[in-house]
Design brief:
Pfam families: HTH_3 (PF01381). This is Helix-turn-helix transcriptional regulator. With about 150 residues, the chain is mainly alpha-helical. Helix content is about 65%, strand content about 0%. The protein is built from nine helices and no strands. The protein is globular and about 45 Å long. The N and C termini lie far apart (about 75 Å).
Length: about 150
């Protein structure tokens, strides 16, 4: 059974690659996939895994969730708001990568606490960001003595 969105995915990837001014070979190298495989994806002959889509998205500096929707991995109607929110965060040029990942982690936490599905986040690889955020959240003064007085003189 053929996927309805594979061709749409390939056309979109080709457009994004050209917008990024990358050759097929350059994108394949950056994403860690073979040149022929990426060519087959662009021509709609192959449906890549979520992991491959994430690698391609990272190489193109675009939202992996957008690629998941175009590949038919995510339900476009149900996940549209989440995908758009994530895309806006990831596309914001005023944020550093660390800030983007922190915002995505906060957003996912909010969704989970309020009973929303985590479908897109389950597919997205934000585990590293979550680990980094958790490491930052550990209070340092519980295990170490403060190096500076807590009260200012004056």
């Amino acid at each position: 059974m053929a996927s309805l969105n594979v061709g749409n995915l390939g056309e979109y990837l080709r457009e994004q690659r050209r917008n990024a001014q990358l050759s097929l070979r350059q994108l394949a190298d950056a994403a860690g996939v073979s040149n022929p495989y990426l060519s087959q994806i662009e021509r709609g002959l192959r449906k890549p895994s979520a992991e491959v889509l994430q690698q391609v998205a990272k190489a193109l500096r675009i939202s992996a969730e957008t690629l998941y929707v175009r590949a038919g991995i995510l339900d476009a109607e149900r996940d549209r708001d989440e995908v758009e929110t994530r895309a806006v965060i990831l596309a914001d040029p005023t944020l550093t990568e660390a800030q983007k990942q922190a915002l995505l982690q906060i957003y996912e936490s909010f969704r989970k606490e309020n009973g929303f599905s985590g479908t897109a986040a389950d597919l997205a690889d934000i585990a590293d960001a979550a680990d980094a955020q958790d490491a930052q959240d550990v209070p340092q003064d519980d295990t170490e003595e403060p190096r500076e007085p807590r009260q200012s003189a004056g």
